[in-house]
Amino acid sequence: MYELRGVTKRYTRGKDVVHALDGVDLTIGDGDRLVIQGPTGGGKSTLLQMLGGLDRPTSGEVVLDGTDLAELPEARLTRVRSENIGFVFQSFNLIPTLTAQENVETALVPLGIKAADRRERAAEALKSVGLGERLGHLPSELSGGQQQRVAIARALVKQPKVLLADEPTGNLDESMRDEIMDVLERMWKEHGLTFVMVTHDSALAKKAPRLATIRKGRITVTEKTGA
Ligand SMILES: Nc1ncnc2c1ncn2[C@@H]1O[C@H](COP(=O)(O)OP(=O)(O)OP(=O)(O)O)[C@@H](O)[C@H]1O
Ligand SMILES: [Mg+2]
C-alpha cells in the first residue's frame, strides 16, 4: 500500500519555480484501482513518477509497504522499481531494434532470471495479452495497439505489485482504446494489482470507484460508495 504525506515537487528554472505537486496526501490500498484526471500541466505525470520512484519529491514521504521511496539510496530504489512496479506510457517506449519477445525479456534481466526462463515467461506474458503469434515481430511490424500490448506484457512479466499507466491509450485510435482498456482491466483483476492510471477518457473516469483530480499540484479524491 502507498501512503503519501505532504508530497511536494518543485522545478526551478532560473527565476521560475513550478510547483508541480503542492502538498499531496494520498493513500492507495493493495489491489485498489485509482484513476487520475486533471488539466494539462496539473501534475499527473509528476505524481506517477513519485509513485514509481522514477524521481524524488522536493519534500514529503512516498511510503510503499512501509519504505519511504524518497529516502532510499539509488541502488535500492532501482531494485524496488524493477521488482515491484510496472509502467505503461502513452508512447509505448519499446526498444525498436528488439523483437516483441526480447522487449518483454528486458524486464527480467535485472532480476537475475536465467535466459531460458526469461524466454518462457516473456512468451507466456505475450500470450496473455493476445500476442502469442507475434513474438518475433519488431515494434515497427506491429500496430499501435499491439505495441501497447507488448508494453503491458513487459510491465507485468515480472509479476509486480503495482502497475502505473500514464495515458496508456493517448496515442491510439478509438477502436484500439477500448481494447487496451479491457486488457488493463483484465490484468488488474487477474494479477490483483494496485493500479494507478492517468487518463483523459471521461467515460472511464465516470466508472471508476475512486477518482483523483489534480489541479495545480493539488489533489482531490472522490470516492463513489457502492461502486
Ligand atoms: N523536468 C521538468 N522541469 C521543469 N518543469 C517541469 C518538469 N516536468 C514537469 N514540469 C512542470 O510541472 C508541471 C506538471 O507537469 P506534469 O507533466 O506532471 O503535468 P500533467 O498533469 O502530466 O500534464 P499533461 O496532461 O499535459 O501530461 C507543469 O507545469 C510542467 O511544465
Ligand atoms: Mg502527463
Describe this structure in words.
By secondary structure, this protein is α/β, with parallel strands linked by helices. The protein has a single domain, classed as 3-Layer(aba) Sandwich (Rossmann fold), CATH 3.40.50. It has seven helices and ten strands. The chain has helices at residues 44-51, 74-84, 100-105, 115-128, 144-156, 174-191, 202-207; strands spanning 2-13, 16-28, 33-37, 59-64, 67-68, 85-89, 162-166, 194-198, 210-215, 218-223. The strands form two sheets. The protein has a six-stranded mixed β-sheet. A four-stranded antiparallel β-sheet has the order 2-1-4-5, with helices on one face. The longest helix has 18 residues, at 174-191. The protein is globular and about 50 Å long. The model has no long low-confidence stretch (mean pLDDT 94). Residues 11, 13, 18, 20, 38, 40-46 line the site of adenosine-5'-triphosphate (ATP).
Blueprint (SSEs and pairs):
Layout: E1 2-13, E2 16-28, E3 33-37, H1 44-51, E4 59-64, E5 67-68, H2 74-84, E6 85-89, H3 100-105, H4 115-128, H5 144-156, E7 162-166, H6 174-191, E8 194-198, H7 202-207, E9 210-215, E10 218-223
Parallel strand pairs: 3-8, 3-9, 6-7, 7-8
Antiparallel strand pairs: 1-2, 1-4, 4-5, 9-10
Bound molecules: adenosine-5'-triphosphate and magnesium ion.
What is the H-and-E element order?
A: EEEHEEHEHHHEHEHEE
Count every beta strand, where a strand is a DSSP E run of 2 or more residues. 10
Spatially, the strands of the biggest sheet line up as 6-7-8-3-9-10
Mean residue pLDDT: 94
CA-based shape: globular
Helix % is 25-40%
Percent in strands: 25-35%
CATH superfamily: P-loop containing nucleotide triphosphate hydrolases
The CATH class, by name, is: Alpha Beta
The helix count comes to 7
Low-confidence stretches: none
Q: What is bound: which ligands?
A: adenosine-5'-triphosphate, magnesium ion
Q: Could you say what the CATH topology is called?
A: Rossmann fold
Query: What structural class results from the helix and strand content?
Result: alpha/beta
